[in-house]
Amino acid sequence: MNNIQKNRLKDQIFKIWGIGCTLFGLVILFFFIGDILIDGIQRIDWSFITDLPSRKAEKSGIYTALMGSIWILCLTTVIALPIGIAAGIYLEEYSKKGKLSALLEINISNLAGVPSIIYGLLGLEVFVRIMSLGASVLAGSLTLSLLILPIIIVATREAIKAVPTSIKDASYALGASKWQTIWYQILPASSGGILTGVILALSRAVGETAPLIVIGALAYVPFAPSTPMDEFSVLPIQIFNWISRPQHGFIENAAAAIIILLLITFVMNGIAVYFRNKWQKKLK
Amino acid sequence: MKKQILIILVAVIALSCGENKKSSESSNSEMLSGTIQVDGSSTVFPVTEAVAEEYRTEQPDVKVTIGVSGTGGGFKKFSRGETNISNASRPIKDIEIEACKENNITYVELEVAYDGLAVLVNPENTWVDSFTIEELKKIWEPAAQGKIMKWNQIRPEWPNEEIHLFGPGVASGTYDYFTEAIVGKSGSSRGDFTASEDDHVLVQGIAGDKYSLGFFGLAYYTENADKLTLIGVHNGTEVVKPTLETVSNGTYKPLSRPLFIYVNSTSVKSPEVVDFVNFYLNNAGELAEDVGYIPLPADIYKKQIENFKTFVESNK
């Protein structure tokens, strides 16, 4: 065997190893989804969506938890989206490169790595106690907004960085002001990337349990929130609660609720992919 | 149209009042409204949830919300006056009593049900028929770590095989309670056992290992009775297995514990809280059984109701 053959063999081996690595995650994911589907799919029907929680597994539903999750999702978007995007634009376009901006940058990256339960403790002290919002939907959304802000900021900056300088230069050459350039050129060109980041951040928020348990989100609420000041429960808490019950029926309920939660995140990821493709085409 | 709805409503209310004879003594005939905030132990949660669910048909306008911050977390909120009722799987601690005093919170402690701890082995285990407290202590105490590793170290006639231990995670109240009752000090045990916060994992572990030994809440055994063997514990006079009867009459000692709710004095000024707690005490027995716990004897429920009544009167 000469050198060339040896190298080709190495190449082949690495290729197979790479395929194995790629499949590893996928196989486990499919195994997990399959297992959940077998356990939970027959439990899902309309009444499962519209019923209140109950001590009897077969009478229980996810109505209040689902409505709580939807409320949290909408409010978190309303709070985190403008703040995150504005901060991203500022850092990328306005801030002067210096020690301060370097410090800001490091801290934002650090924030993205802080365990979510720490945000819960922060939310409990600041929003629930000091601002006396109580364990309300608003307090929960503010806490989760803090949690996903770093992700949105980083995504916004990356998306803006990816906008070709030629577009900016052309805009300035035509006499547009900085604001006009950002509003009419940079934002539209980067919105695909920004939206992808935002939606991925929100799919993370919808699966969070720990910070919401810490701020005092409830395990049993007999009503869906009707104002941002109402108390609430969310799907992950309902799932967590059901999994710790001895009766087998609750395990099925948990599996069924996991399917609904997975559906929500899949749909959101789907929307993210759709937007990315759409905007990319536009750019070309 | 409106009239029809009204008639149907009246009929429904009349029906539901008629059906719930057991609770009619506790409920006001008037309709109440308001919110009642409950937080605390996740062990007590299923009982309170069941009561809240039934209470919904009784007083649909009273909104009962329940959190699961844990017994300690629940008392923290309770001592700040943030909740009306606290679920607890152990009595309130001195430090928590202090916190309540600082904020001028007085309260009443009410027992609502019993929870039994079951000691279990694999069904293929033919040699164990019972344990004494001393034997359990010998197996689980901190000094046993790395030393008591084989079945024949407990009783010489048992096999010369490794013993595999399973138990709830150290953060759970069940673990606290077991160590307190067996080892004598809450939270103190050997560390080399398979611990899981998910009791289903413990069930799987014991069911799949011939030389296993473990403990967890009785409700998990009841749901998995075909996969596990329940072992009786010597209470000083005789060997007793945990059942509805032995836990309820107190002969299954020391591995059964009462579950509590705590109600604060400002809350009992609201009629809906008083009505809810009365409804709770009147129905807890039946509902506790529904969710896998064990009802108190009837006379103890009666005593709780009386205690609560005096507490309400003294805080009027």
Automatic annotation (TrEMBL), chain A:
Q: Which Pfam families match?
A: BPD_transp_1
Keywords of this protein's UniProt record, alphabetized?
Cell membrane, Membrane, Transmembrane, Transmembrane helix, Transport
Transmembrane residue ranges: 16-41, 62-91, 135-155, 182-202, 209-225, 254-275
Q: What Gene Ontology cellular-component terms does the record carry?
A: plasma membrane
User: Which BP terms from GO are recorded?
Assistant: phosphate ion transmembrane transport
InterPro entries from the xrefs? MetI-like, MetI-like_sf, Phosphate_PstA
Q: Which residues form the ABC transmembrane type-1 domain?
A: 66-272
Q: Does the keyword Transport apply?
A: yes
Q: Where, subcellularly, is it found?
A: Cell membrane
Report if keyword Membrane is assigned. yes
Task: Report the main location listed first in the record.
Answer: membrane
UniProt membrane topology term: Multi-pass membrane protein
**A molecular function GO annotation:** phosphate transmembrane transporter activity
Give the record's family classification.
Answer: Belongs to the binding-protein-dependent transport system permease family. CysTW subfamily.
Quote the NCBIfam families the UniProt record gives.
3a0107s02c (TIGR00974)
Q: What is this protein called?
A: Phosphate transport system permease protein PstA
TrEMBL record, chain B:
**Gene3D superfamilies per the UniProt record, alphabetical:** Periplasmic binding protein-like II
Alphabetized, the UniProt keywords read: Phosphate transport, Signal, Transport
Cite a single Pfam family from the UniProt record. Answer: PBP_like_2
Q: Which residues form the PBP domain?
A: 31-282
UniProt xrefs under InterPro entries = PBP_domain, Phos-bd, Phosphate_ABC_transporter
Single GO MF annotation: phosphate ion binding
One GO biological process this protein is involved in is: phosphate ion transport
- Superkingdom of this entry's organism? Bacteria
Role according to the record:
Involved in the system for phosphate transport across the cytoplasmic membrane.
- Kindly give the PANTHER family that the UniProt entry links to this protein: PERIPLASMIC PHOSPHATE BINDING COMPONENT OF PHOSPHATE ABC TRANSPORTER, PHOSPHATE-BINDING PROTEIN PSTS
Q: Which family does it belong to?
A: Belongs to the PstS family.
User: What name goes with this protein?
Assistant: Phosphate-binding protein
| Taxonomy of the source species | Bacteria, Pseudomonadati, Bacteroidota, Flavobacteriia, Flavobacteriales
